[in-house]
Known about the structure:
By secondary structure, the protein is α+β, with helices and mostly antiparallel strands. It contains ten helices and 13 strands.
Amino acid sequence: MKSGKLPSDVLEQRIFSSFRFKREEVLVRPQVGEDCSVLDFGDYACVLSTDPITGAANEIGRLAVHISCNDVAANGVEPFGLLLTILAPEGTTLEVLQDIVRQAAEEAASLRVEIIGGHTEITQAVNRIVVSTTAIGRAEKDRVVKSAGARPGDSIILTKWAGLEGTAIIAHDLAERLHGRVRQDLLENARSFMENISVVKEGMIGGRMGASAMHDVTEGGVLGAIWEIAEASGVGIRVYRDRIPVRPETKAICRELGLDPLKLISSGCMLITCRNGEEMLKALQGEGIPASIIGEVVEKGRAIVVDGIETPIDPPQSDELYKVI
């Protein structure tokens, strides 16, 4: 099989179908497009998400914190606790491990999230460092936003710009390969994108402003996330290519490497569907978060409009990042 997340049909037919035992306390179960589990804790819901970092070599401590916290934030819930697991190959130095933990501790503290446990191990089972995190949040049950809530007539908002995380990873990990091929100032700017990986702030705004659905844009990029939110909600979606923001740094790197920025991993971007699109846009921009209305939720069909022509959006495949990393 190819690198990356399993295809949606494989997840549904071969993985999720094996989970037959169910408990009444579980409010949200595994489903394509839903990145969090939600548990009934009486008046409150506990929201959990887990994810590994496998496609990056640098800054993995920082990325590991945000990838799980972002998923919890996509439910409109503030994360407060994090479990951190580090698996490292033989020969890894203590200094390298300390740097990963330092990165994770700094990023977690910036989000007011406590690292509450985990596991650290040197093992022959991996040939590069793998970091996995589980984020935990809590909210009143009626305040939890799901990926499955999009409704026809909703506006679709994208925060920040497509390919954000992938651009930062490539600029860090392939600096030597891109030297002389992409302008140095663009590469330096691209590396700074790592500072924009969190979507906790927009998740809190979306939850407060009545978002019908939210989804953190990860593997498969913007188009993959659009397909997943439509699949989870059982609706159609129409987006417009010229409304999806892509930074010059991302365009330059993707052009040089032959990548599609709309299919490039994009943690740091949040997809939000809502009835009050203009009000949501103003609230996000008022907090310094770039945001754009890129389309609308419809009854049927999942398409991107380019120069007036609709092209179907396919289920997400292997992320563009794996072509070069």
